[in-house]
Design brief:
Number of domains: 1
Strand order of the largest sheet: 3-2-1-4-5-7-6
Radius of gyration: 16 Å
Bound molecules: S-adenosylmethionine
Largest sheet: 7 strands, mixed
Oligomer: single chain
Number of helices: 8
CATH topology: Rossmann fold
CATH class: Alpha Beta
Number of strands: 7
Length: about 220
């Protein structure tokens, strides 16, 4: 399935089984994910995509928050999708999960009202970010919205300094556009409108920002 190289959830594959635990103790994970859900105003029958769903923590939170939504999680990493499948089975939730080849999303144009993505884009080099954003634009309905939570350029020098830990771990190239604060511009370039930072979280690894944009 995944021919394209990718950065695993915690950089090293052997850390994947510990992802939920390690993120839970080092990041304000629940607040970030809950804010992403609240800000996206999910209503019954909304079709939602969780891009780079990982272990499906956000996917499950969104479904539990608004059970009437139709939500799909997609990720490039088969191993993490296995973990996500186990969690969803345990909770007996109606959530679709899929892998893909890292290039073309396996969905028709305009399939989703809302696209959510948490802590994924700093794993993608700028050219990959551009391709994926164009794909996300394609699968968003007219009037639909994209919500990305990820590291961005902080006004605080301390937060910028702290982001270097993640940059060292996940790579300077993939994190470069995040560090320069270019995510809103990249979203705008593929056609999304009104891309802007809606919320900021200070963390021990640098500032996480929720950025939202619309397909008009
Ligand atoms: C830090 S984890 C975040 C997982 C989840 N969104 C969360 O917040 O818990 C980053 C995720 O992005 C996925 N990923 C990396 N490159 C990807 C790509 N090109 N397409 C889709 N997912 C990708 C990884 O497999 C991993 O599950």
């Amino acid at each position: 399935m995944s021919e394209v190289k990718f950065v695993s959830a915690l950089r090293f594959r052997w850390l994947t089984p510990m992802y939920d635990f390690l993120v839970g103790i080092t990041m304000p994970e629940a607040s970030i994910k809950q804010s992403l859900i609240n800000i996206s105003y999910l209503t019954d029958k909304t079709s939602v995509l969780d891009f780079g769903c990982g272990t499906a923590t956000l996917t499950i939170m969104a479904k539990e928050h608004r059970p009437g939504i139709n939500i799909t999680g997609i990720d490039i990493d088969k191993a993490i999708l296995n973990k996500a499948t186990e969690k969803i089975k345990q909770k007996k939730l109606d959530i679709k999960l899929t892998g893909y080849n890292g290039e073309t999303l396996p969905f028709d144009d305009g399939s989703f009202d809302r696209i959510l993505s948490c802590l994924v884009f700093h794993h993608l080099e700028t050219s990959v970010k551009q391709k994926i954003l164009a794909e996300l634009f394609r699968v968003t309905q007219n009037g639909g919205q994209l919500f990305i939570a990820d590291f961005g350029r902080s006004e605080s020098w301390l937060q910028r300094l702290l982001f270097n830990t993640i940059r060292g771990l996940d790579g300077y190239k993939p994190t470069s556009a995040n560090a320069k604060g270019l995510m809103p511009l990249l979203m705008h370039e593929v056609g999304f409108k009104n891309a802007a930072i809606r919320k900021k979280f200070k963390t021990i690894f640098g500032e996480v920002q929720i950025i939202n944009a619309t397909k008009q």
